[in-house]
Design goal:
With about 300 residues, the chain is α/β, with parallel strands linked by helices. The chain has twelve helices and eight strands. The chain is elongated. The two termini are about 15 Å apart.
Length: about 300
């Protein structure tokens, strides 16, 4: 990112996380007033849990702070900086870019309906196209006509080709044909949408397994990445989604959306602490520019309400 793009992204990120940073504000102010006594630390830990950072990360962060040399009279920004530093330590190991290592590079995108999965595919297509790559979108969520239509719109908008069939068509067969076409056409990136129904996990598992099995008949290493799109507004439910899709789809990385719509932005910290899966992108709005690569420092500072 150039300086101007970075500044714009920081503005969107810090604005998007305002509801989360506000939750932590009072506890930070108390800590600044009273110093780091046991009661204030307990209150801070409770606030971190309320912001959905989870007991594991909250305990780890407050334990680290208790070993510091805080005294009465520290300013709120000094406390915020210390807290951001500890949050960054949890996030740094998972802040990894998505590396394109093959051609075509095949990305299977999973997530529950309503998580922003299809929109995220469109935004990723726009990013790859802006880098000069050719992109194919595969409408593998064949159960939802709206998802198929949405992908077609993103294809037109981004200049990506789209492979789709009528609603109810076999998703595995579509994936097979799409990969064969992508190889023949020398496409750089293939983004494959998938169904997001969790009501019947066995059916979902069987469909995803079939898609992967069939894709590997065309490309042995497919998919090269399995991205799980998570909606930050669901809070703790995101943890169970990571667990389920991890088992079903072999998730290799995460994208978290809708951070601007929640006071639960800390859920990303809880997920990082528990699963250690790479976080590639985060989203703080509807626009293409509102999805950006995840960086631990920026997120940690924004979540406690610090300037960049």
């Amino acid at each position: 990112m150039n300086d101007s793009t970075q500044a714009n992204w920081w503005k969107r990120l810090s604005g998007g996380l305002k509801r989360t940073s506000a939750v932590l504000g009072d506890a930070i102010a108390d800590l600044a007033k009273t110093g780091l006594d046991a009661a204030t630390l307990d209150e801070l830990e409770a606030e971190l849990i309320r912001a959905d950072l989870g007991p594991e990360a909250a305990g780890r962060i407050t334990a680290a702070l208790s070993e510091g040399r805080f005294k009465i009279g520290l300013g709120p920004d000094e406390v915020k900086a210390a807290l951001a530093g500890e949050i960054e330590k949890v996030l740094a190991p998972v802040a990894k870019p998505l590396e394109v290592t093959a051609k075509p590079f095949i990305i299977l995108v999973a997530g529950v309906n309503g998580s922003g999965k299809t929109t995220t595919i469109g935004k990723l297509a726009a990013k790859f196209r802006a880098e000069g790559k050719t992109v194919m979108l595969v409408a593998g969520d064949t159960f939802r006509a709206a998802a198929i239509d949405q992908l077609k719109i993103w294809g037109t908008r981004t200049g990506a080709s789209v492979m789709a069939r009528e609603p109810g068509a076999d998703a595995a067969g579509l994936a097979f044909d799409a990969l064969a076409a992508a190889k023949a056409q020398g496409v750089d990136i293939v983004l494959v949408d998938t169904a997001g129904r969790l009501q019947n996990r066995a059916e979902l598992m069987s469909e995803l397994e079939k898609m992967v099995r069939v894709m590997r008949k065309v490309e042995l290493a497919a998919p090269h990445a399995v991205l799980l799109v998570l909606d930050a507004t669901v809070g703790q439910n995101a943890l169970s989604q990571v667990e389920i899709f991890g088992k079903v789809a072999g998730v290799t990385g995460l994208v978290m959306t809708k951070l601007d719509g929640t006071a639960r932005g800390g859920i990303l910290v809880a997920i990082a602490a528990r699963f250690g899966l790479p976080v590639h992108f985060i989203g703080v709005g509807e626009g293409v520019e509102d999805l950006a690569a995840f960086t631990a420092r920026d997120f940690a500072r924004a979540i406690v309400g610090l300037d960049s």
